[in-house]
Specification:
five-stranded mixed beta sheet; alpha/beta; 7 helices; binds S-adenosyl-L-homocysteine; 2 domains; Methyltransferase, Cobalt-precorrin-4 Transmethylase, Domain 2; Cobalt-precorrin-4 Transmethylase, domain 1
């Protein structure tokens, strides 16, 4: 079995934020597997086979990639951002755990990428400079009460929260319910960032107070970041602002 499987993070969008290791893995691949819009971000030469799919079939996609690699192909499974953050790397290992024992002999490499929360943080300043957590708001793979419980616990414990998958046409009300829950825990003046399509041509960043946070500011390409007590805004001379979270936390 001479096949290989790379699980490659493409970063948030801008090709300049793709690592040299990711480029090297992509240049070796005979087959690319991934959600069609991510595949569209990878330029390939002739003879490279593309296996595009839609968004909600991660496990099938992982099995297809493992099967191709076990037939001797060099396969790159593509994720946006980092492949280990709410993305394909876990799906690949779920498939390995429950699938063909021969897959355990494959050489599998996870190639990291810049996750959306890092790209967003870099754009606005340093909001992740203290303790923070990342939560996917999607209730496709976990029950909604679990999502809400984790959000409340994170806000109550003083973490900055990076909310991935905040909204989609199939999940239209969850972000509003999340803000409602957070308003019961955090001050209405807490800073909320809506960062959409960061590092891509359509990039748009809005900074509002939690009391004014409107789910309509988010779409599927948005990362929502909720500040903690130490998250501050510094007015810039040009009218904009830097957002950062202080490194020190006062004794309570
Ligand atoms: N593996 C990816 C996350 C996949 S989940 C990563 O590490 O970034 C998809 C979610 O990621 C989107 O709903 C959005 O919340 C966030 N996201 C991905 N790319 C983004 C970008 N360029 N700008 C803002 N948010 C982004």
């Amino acid at each position: 079995m001479s096949g290989r499987l790379f699980v490659v993070g493409l970063g948030p969008g801008d090709a300049a934020l793709r690592t040299a290791e990711a480029e090297a893995a992509l240049s070796q691949a005979t087959d690319l597997v991934g959600y069609a819009p991510y595949l569209a971000r990878v330029a390939t030469g002739p003879g490279i086979v593309r296996h595009g799919s839609d968004n909600r079939v991660e496990l099938d996609r992982a099995r297809l990639a493992l099967d191709l690699a076990s037939r001797g192909r060099v396969v790159a499974v593509i994720s946006g951002g980092d492949p280990g953050v709410f993305a394909m790397a876990s799906a690949v290992f779920e498939a390995v755990e429950h699938g063909d024992p021969a897959w355990r002999a494959l050489e599998i490499s996870i190639v990291p990428g810049i996750s959306a929360m890092m790209a967003v943080a870099a754009r606005v300043g340093a909001p992740l400079g203290g303790d923070f957590c990342a939560i996917s708001l999607s209730d496709n793979l976990k029950p909604w009460p679990v999502v809400l419980g984790r959000l409340r616990a994170a806000a109550g414990a003083g973490f900055v929260i990076a909310l991935y998958n905040p909204i989609s046409s199939a999940r239209p009300w969850q972000l509003g319910a999340a803000f409602e829950a957070l308003r019961g825990i955090l001050p209405a003046t807490s800073l909320v960032l809506f960062a959409t399509a960061v590092t891509r041509p359509e990039e748009r960043i809005r900074i509002v107070a939690l009391g004014d946070a409107d789910p309509a500011l988010a779409d599927m390409r948005t990362l929502v970041m909720i500040g903690c007590a130490g998250t501050r805004s510094i007015a810039r001379a040009d009218g904009g602002a830097w957002i950062y979270t202080a490194r020190s936390v006062p004794a309570s």
